[in-house]
Specification:
Layout: E1 5-12, E2 24-31, H1 33-36, E3 42-45, E4 63-65, E5 68-72, H2 80-90, E6 95-99, H3 116-129, H4 132-136, E7 148-156, H5 171-176, E8 188-194, H6 201-205, H7 209-219, E9 243-248, E10 260-262, H8 273-288
Parallel strand pairs: 3-7, 5-6, 7-8, 8-9, 9-10
Antiparallel strand pairs: 1-2, 2-6, 4-5
């Protein structure tokens, strides 16, 4: 195992509202000097969590493959799935970034009922990871060899208690799907959604739910979508990206999806965190690392 170093920083969200203070996202950066010294392509994993207004979120963490792992979750730092992924990949020499969603712990701002501000928050974090000079400016004793290559957007959306406790209000995967490949031209984006909450997206995003559905379809190469929730057309075509859906075989959110099922699990994943980490690692090795498109 490689020794892991940690630092905390605050990143300013690109989403700002008139006459309101800037939104600062509490962010944790974990890395290994030995891992950063490897001349491997950067692969970041973004891990998103559930919707804070609808329940008590129990987590936050992130990991990545190749060399850089990013975790965003719509909750705090202590979710069981996020913590496991963060630890698993950081110990493998990857750069891991996790952050508290707006209005949680030391992150400022307010959560929304449309998802629009949160999509800008995710872009801020991924944009940070996509710039090697930004990452290196917050690390110590690391050689200047980082070169952004591939980012795996991993959305783990699971919570313990809440209004929709039994139906899976997995907000993070919804928000993470808003990331557009054209927004980050120097890297390739790949997507993995854990327990995507298809049946309740309408509640989490109000009138923008159809846009988020189309975003997932476009990522999978099934349709075209607007480049932002407010726009109605896409000016540039986007090549479809590999997409992984992970569900427990006891989860009910399986409509019209062909996911990788993990036996004996529901969307809470208690005691099964190792299985998710291994599934993510296997898929990344099979699809992401060797992708040359």
């Amino acid at each position: 195992m490689m020794p892991v170093q940690h630092t905390t920083l605050f990143l300013q969200s690109s989403h700002q509202q008139v006459k309101r203070r800037p939104v600062l996202l509490e962010t944790r950066l974990s890395y290994s000097s030995e891992g950063l010294s490897k001349k491997a392509e950067i692969t970041a994993m973004v891990l998103s969590h559930s919707y804070e207004p609808l329940g008590i979120t129990i987590g936050r963490d992130g990991k990545a493959f190749g060399q850089l792992i990013f975790i965003s979750q719509w909750g705090n730092y202590d979710n069981n799935v996020v913590r496991k992924l963060h630890s698993h990949f950081a110990k493998k020499g990857l750069v891991v970034v996790s952050f508290n969603a707006r209005d949680l712990d030391n992150s400022s701002g307010r959560t929304s009922w449309t998802g629009t501000p949160e999509t800008e928050d995710i872009k801020t974090i991924v944009g940070f990871l996509a710039k090697e000079e930004e990452v290196l400016s917050h690390t110590e004793n690391t050689p200047d060899v980082l070169k952004p290559g591939k980012i795996l957007i991993c959305a783990s959306t699971h919570s313990l208690y809440g209004i929709l406790a039994g139906s899976g209000y997995l907000y993070g995967s919804v928000i993470s799907s808003s990331l557009h490949p054209m927004d980050f031209r120097n890297v390739k984006l790949f997507y993995a959604f854990i327990s995507y909450p298809r049946s309740v997206v309408w509640l989490l995003t109000l009138w923008k739910c159809s846009w988020f559905f189309k975003r997932v379809e476009e990522i999978m190469g099934l349709s075209e979508i607007p480049s932002s929730p407010e726009q109605s057309s896409l000016n540039e075509s986007v090549q479809s990206r590999p997409v992984l859906f992970i569900y427990g075989d006891s989860d009910h959110e399986l409509q019209n999806i062909q996911p990788r099922l993990i036996e004996g699990c529901d969307h809470f994943w208690f005691g099964k965190e190792n299985k998710i980490a291994q599934c993510m690692e296997d898929w990344s090795n099979e699809v992401v690392i060797h992708n040359t498109d």
